[in-house]
Design goal:
Elements lengths: L4 H23 L4 E4 L1 H5 L5 H11 L6 H6 L2 H7 L5 H8 L8 H13 L5 H10 L4 E6 L5 H7 L8 E4 H4 L6 H11 L6 E5 L2 H9 L3 E4 L3 H13 L19
Parallel strand pairs: 1-2, 1-4, 2-3, 4-5
Helix pairs in contact: 5-6
């Protein structure tokens, strides 16, 4: 059986063109970086800070986070059913704060102790202009204003705040909405979060998920990721969350 030379060349050219296209796609694989806010962009408060709150409020040691974040008021705030003012008013009595001026004073103190992680911020500034940047956070209404007050809102193309949207991670719709606003496909985005279940959910959608530990480790993982053209689940330097979480 004779095979025409033209057919061979056509097939070879087609294969070469597909290989070139694949190379181009991989060369610009990561087009967006999506960061969690709490404990990633923001710095964890030292334990001494919480002990001081408990001492001054007369709360049993180790209980303030349970009072603030384990009840229905926090869950309502995360999906926008409560404003931040409504949240603080709801938990005030459990903190021993019965008057509005007391609640307002402690709220101001609590917020003043929150600060940006300088090492993560340096990394974000270095990435700015090289790819799209976004914040995706389970956070009460007003995160956009918070970022503006810190002077870093302009670094991000998209801010997805659950309190403004009514949906929280790990709902797949949250990730898809963020990707749609960025205009990128899952395989072209990296997502950084300190919660295992949120990273697992991102990976299940085809997003490059990185579990945040500290800025130095994140820097190494992103450097490796940006150099690779490997599949989503092949990151030797990135910790892979166990499958039974999230």
């Amino acid at each position: 059986m004779m095979i025409s030379t033209g057919s061979v060349y056509t097939d070879a050219f087609r294969a070469l063109r597909q290989a070139i296209q694949k190379h181009r796609e991989h060369a610009a694989m990561i087009k967006a970086m999506i960061f969690d806010f709490g404990l990633v962009i923001s710095t964890p408060r030292p334990t001494a800070c919480f002990r001081a709150y408990e001492r001054d409020l007369g709360i049993v040691k180790g209980n303030i986070n349970r009072i603030m974040f384990d009840g229905p008021a926090w869950q309502d705030a995360l999906v926008g059913r409560l404003t931040m003012r409504g949240f603080w008013r709801a938990i005030g009595p459990s903190l021993g704060l019965t008057r509005q001026w007391q609640i307002d004073a402690f709220q101001r103190r609590y917020y003043s102790d929150e600060s940006v992680n300088p090492d993560v911020l340096r990394l974000i500034r270095r990435l700015h202009g090289t790819c799209h940047l976004a914040v995706l956070s389970n956070h009460p209404m007003g995160l956009d204003q918070w970022l503006s007050e810190w002077g870093i809102r302009d670094l991000f193309d998209v801010v997805y705040c659950s309190g403004d949207e009514g949906r929280v991670k790990p709902d797949p719709a949250v990730y898809h909405a963020t990707l749609d606003r960025l205009g990128v496909r899952p395989a072209h985005a990296a997502f950084i979060d300190d919660t295992v279940g949120h990273v697992t959910a991102a990976r299940s959608l085809g997003i490059h998920g990185l579990l945040f530990k500290d800025a130095q480790r994140l820097d190494r993982e992103l450097e490796y990721l940006l150099k690779q053209d490997s599949p989503v689940d092949r990151f030797p330097h990135a910790e892979k969350p166990p499958d039974d979480h999230g």
